[in-house]
């Protein structure tokens, strides 16, 4: 049964995802980026540091009872985001468009909303 605690986890995940993927906007454009992209410009360790909030979002989803298949999809998004970010400059630009944390928060929302109506 889906409870308010599950949706509190979702709110935390969405808040963190926005910080990581959409916190800032390039002036005069619709391009948004977050701390993930900023960390990514630090060669070698930046993308690895950005894994920690992503892991936390997956942990929130696990605690909300998300099935393994969805958790694996979330992990795939996280790994792809990390891998893309490994490529200097090009990876940083692509990383801004991929937004793994937003994708994972959406997966959590989709699961919880579907489970609530089931």
Question: How would you concisely characterize the structure shown here?
Answer:
This protein is mostly helical.
List the helices and strands and how they pair.
Layout: H1 4-21, E1 24-25, E2 32-33, H2 35-40, H3 46-49, H4 51-63, H5 68-85, H6 90-98, H7 100-117
Antiparallel strand pairs: 1-2
Question: What report would you give on this structure?
Answer:
By secondary structure, this protein is mainly alpha-helical. The protein has one domain (4-117). It is 73% helix and 3% strand. The protein contains 7 helices and 2 strands, in the order αββαααααα. It has helices at residues 4-21, 35-40, 46-49, 51-63, 68-85, 90-98, 100-117; strands at residues 24-25, 32-33. Strands 1-2 form a two-stranded antiparallel sheet. α4 (51-63) runs antiparallel to α5 (68-85) and α5 (68-85) runs antiparallel to α7 (100-117). The protein is globular, with a radius of gyration of 15 Å. The chain starts with a helix and ends with a helix. The mean pLDDT is 93.
């Amino acid at each position: 049964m889906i409870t308010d605690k599950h949706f509190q986890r979702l709110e935390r995940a969405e808040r963190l995802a926005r910080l990581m993927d959409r916190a800032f906007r390039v002036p005069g454009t619709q391009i948004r980026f977050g701390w993930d992209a900023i960390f990514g410009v630090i060669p070698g360790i930046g993308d690895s540091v950005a894994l920690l909030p992503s892991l936390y979002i997956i942990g929130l989803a696990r605690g909300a009872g998300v099935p393994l298949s969805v958790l694996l999809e979330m992990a795939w998004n996280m790994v792809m985001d990390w891998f893309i970010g490994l490529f200097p400059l090009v990876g940083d630009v692509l990383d801004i468009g991929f937004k793994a944390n937003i994708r994972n928060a959406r997966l959590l929302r989709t699961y919880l909303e579907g489970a609530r109506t089931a």
